Amino acid sequence: MENNKKEKTNIIVNNENDAIFYIDPLDGDGFRFPYLLYTPNNIKNGSPIFVAGNNSREINKDYEVDIEQAFNMIKGTLKIPIFNESRVPILMPIFPSFYGECGECGECEECEKEKYIQQLSRNTMLIKDGNLARIDLQLIAMINNAKELLLKYE
Fold first, then answer.
1. Where does 15-99 show beta strands of DSSP type E?
2. What is the DSSP letter of 28?
3. CA 125 to CA 121: how far, in whole Å?
4. How big is the chain by its Cα radius of gyration, in Å?
5. Alpha carbon distance 10, 137 (integer Å)
6. Among 80, 94, 91, 78, CA closest to 18
7. pLDDT tens per residue across all 154 residues of the chain
8. Residue 39 forms beta bridges with which residues?
9. pTM of the entire structure?
10. E strands within 52-113?
11. Phi, psi of 37 (to 5 degrees)
12. Nearest-angstrom CA–CA distance, 140 and 91
């Protein structure tokens, strides 16, 4: 079956050994936030994907800060010997650090009830509407999307 979806993938870092891709969500992907995907150049077919949390350890309302921190965190992860030696792909979701109850603006009355989304806590899992609905299923969709990309570009 042919895939007619347009891809929104940008290479952030690309050298002879590996690359870090920034993947934007598309309608129908099953996730609403981007993720980073580190791919070593000598990846083996069927290699597992390591999912690393983007835990910025602070709540902020500027999503651009979350994106920058995720990029710095994935680069830092690559300095850990086990990841550098194992040469497995690493997926890092870029979930926002802060969203309120509505899951949209961060400004309305409902958003006064702050949630630290990157923890993937019980409260986060109970969000039923908006961009953060079923964040657990969104993460699974990111993993499936990454598997498809890895197979496509091996």
1. 18-23, 35-40, 50-51, 90-93, 98-99
2. T
3. 6
4. 16
5. 23
6. 78
7. 233 344 466 666 666 668 889 999 988 899 999 999 998 887 777 789 999 888 766 666 677 888 888 888 888 877 777 777 778 899 999 988 765 545 455 455 555 455 667 667 777 777 788 888 888 899 999 999 999 988 887 6
8. 19
9. 0.78
10. 90-93, 98-99
11. -135, 115
12. 11
Q: Count of CB atoms within 10 A of residue 54's CB? A: 22
Tokens at residue 83, please?
């990841």
Please give the structure tokens belonging to residue 105.
């603006």
Closest by CA to 147, choosing from 35, 49, 56, is: 49
With CA atoms as reference, report the closest residue to 92 among 135, 43, 55: 55
**Residue keyed to tokens 């850990």:** 80
Strand partners, 94: none
